[in-house]
Amino acid sequence: MTISQAIRAAAERLALTSDTARLDAELLMAHTLGVSRSDMLLWHMNDLEPARFEHRVDRRAAHEPVAYITGVCEFYGREFRVNSDVLIPRPDSETIVEAALEALNEVPTGHLNLPDILDLGTGSGALLLSVLAERSDLTGYGIDCSEGALRMARDNAERLGLCDRATFEEADWTKRSGRGDDWAAALVPAALILANPPYVENDAQIGSNVREFEPAGALFAGPEGLDDYRLIIPSLRNLLLDGGKAVLEIGHTQAEAVTELAEKAGFAVDVRHDLANRPRALVLSSGNW
Q1: Are 251 and 109 in a shared domain?
Q2: What phi, psi does 166 have (nearest 5°)?
Q3: pLDDT, tens only, 188-199
Q4: Does residue 68 lie within any of the structural domains?
Q5: Which of 142, 148, 140 is nearest to 87 (CA)?
Q6: pTM greater than 0.85 (yes/no)
Q7: Residue 23 maps to which CATH number?
């Protein structure tokens, strides 16, 4: 078959399991050819189908996300490497980047020998690296409990030319630090904190492409999806420099519950909405300290 015919056949097959079947087929074919999707559509549609394409369609038909098959995902205008050690960055999370860039205009950055930004649960590094790529005057570091995720974040920092301004280290807010005190005591405070913690309810009805392939430890957070917020929010005061702010991603039904947790910890809370006008980020600043 020609590439055009192969894409059409793949799209018909993937329509049984994907709402974006044609796009999936085109992305998989472009990846197989090693060219951009636009170049493929312009110059390669009459070429012969490459042998490896069918295997990749098989994987997608079994619900594996396209980003894991191709190994890359676009986020905030840049390409990030991903694998099953990390969540796939979602467009909704770009709300956190926008809120962070706005908050940076109001927080005291540039402290000598201190990072400007701390990213909790960095995963692929997409949040931290996107902000640093937009602000060349800042530095930051990310933590994660997964060594596989940290390797991916470091790789993305290198690919984006940000190794001199972004570092990553292992830490786990579900455990105490090596000194026997709060997990946050071992971390360096920053002017801005980013966090996209697990927030999916354990029994939530989510697609098999997510539940079966993306890392459960980065998704699920107890019966209400609030377990990790309960661990993180009380420690934020010790992690923020004076005048600092924190930007937390939330599930779109969790604004009220997470706001209550933050206000009990002494924070003033601002809610930010995603492109679908759903609550997606909370901006926390010093309130009743």
Answers
A1: yes
A2: -135, 130
A3: 999 999 999 999
A4: no
A5: 148
A6: yes
A7: 1.10.8
Q: How many domains does the chain have?
A: 2
* Same domain as 164, residue 57: no
Q: What is the pLDDT of residues 89-126, one digit of tens each?
A: 999 999 999 999 999 999 999 999 999 999 999 999 99
The pLDDT mean for the chain works out to 95
Domain boundary among 33, 62, 91: 62
| Structural domain includes residue 252 | yes
b/e code 59-94 from CB counts within 10 Å (16+ = b): ebbeebbbbbbbebbebbebebbbbebbbbbeebbb
Same domain, 56 and 152: no
Q: With the C-alpha atoms ordered 230, 76, 283, 155, is the resulting torsion angle positive or negative?
A: positive
pLDDT tens across 199-244, in order?
999 999 999 999 999 999 999 999 999 999 999 999 999 999 999 9
On whether residue 185 sits in a domain, the answer given is yes
Are both 42 and 102 inside the same structural domain?
A: no
Q: If 0-12 CB within 10 Å is exposed, 13-18 middle and 19+ buried, where does residue 122 land? A: buried
d(CA 62, CA 50): 20
Q: Is 71 part of any domain?
A: no
Q: 40 and 145 in one domain?
A: no
Contact 107, 245 (CB under 8 A): yes
- How confident is the model over 15-29, as pLDDT tens digits? 999 999 999 999 999
Domain limits at 51? 3-62
For the chain, percent of residues with pLDDT exceeding 70 = 97
Strands across the sheet containing 279-286 = 166-170, 140-144, 117-120, 190-195, 240-249, 279-286, 267-273
